[in-house]
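Translate sequence into structure tokens.
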Amino acid sequence: MKENDKLSRILADSKERLKELVCINNATAIIKENKSIEETCKHIALILPQAFKFPDNAFVEIKYGEKQFVSSNFEKSGWKISQSFDTIDEERCEISVFYNEKFPQADEGPFLKEERNLLINISNIIAGFINSQLAKKVIKEESKKSSEPKTSFSQDSHKLMSRFISKQNSDRDIYHDLMPFKVKEILLVANLYDAYIIEKEGRFLEHILGEYYQLNLSSTPRITGVSDNSDAIQLLQNKHFDMVIIMLGIDKKNSFELSRLIKSAMPYVPVYMLLNNNNDIAIFEEKPTLLENVDKQFVWNGDSKIFLTMIRHLEDMINVENDTIIGMVRVILLVEDSAKYYSRYLPVLYQNNGTNKGYYRRNQC
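Result follows.
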């Protein structure tokens, strides 16, 4: 019975998150119609109640200066959540959502923390649209003034444009603060036979370079290969590496001993282990303590994309907190504890999402 209740809660939460995503997508579509500020705000006010947990009892008010845009049959109450936002013309702006009856206590009165995040996202969308419309209006008005040079702006217009440019630069500069950690140096430990197989079957270096070029990733990591434990330890002592990838060869004890030595001397260095095939997974299942010195294990399936997956997985694990706070970057959460399956799923996720845009982030498993 408890399991059924837990499953019901998970399904209910998933349904709520889906409603929020649909609302953001709809709001973005409304913005793209490029209609007036008044019509756009009115339209968003009409669709926003459907994103809340109790849509039949939700009413929305969007204020832009002295103007007010409300949802159908609007009424105010004491059960309210609001989010203010700024525009370049310094008007007072606010989105408020009201419930017309009392509901159980949640994170903010009857409202969920996810609904607060939704209001933040919607307010950012509206603010960006209003700022863009105001800037276009200034440019259009100034271009009509035949008595002044086209480059001449009135004092008020100049201030407005300056605020718009500052705002745009601020939004742009956020991207410079994303992905602070990038893998630049990799130590690959593999015996000569495994290294030959990787290069022969997967065109390893060619694939890594090609993927970074196709995805517009700025810096290709440098890969240093060794086949002996003592060489690996010596390199680690003399040079910084962002991650170590150990291929689990025929002499498995040797690979486990190397991971132990690395973590004992340099516990801060991420150690990833690449298994030869799915049969090697049983080793970790029989002796879970072997995982104490390994940060993540993946399975070689004959496709060198797995190396790019390991690199991006590490970058995402380290960058996710920074990027979601600073840039509100979306997250794909893959729930899978089997190396056999996430070694197949993650390369597909990275490839399909990475080819849609130059910057694709966030994947956890």
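Note: The first strand starts at residue 58 and ends at 64.
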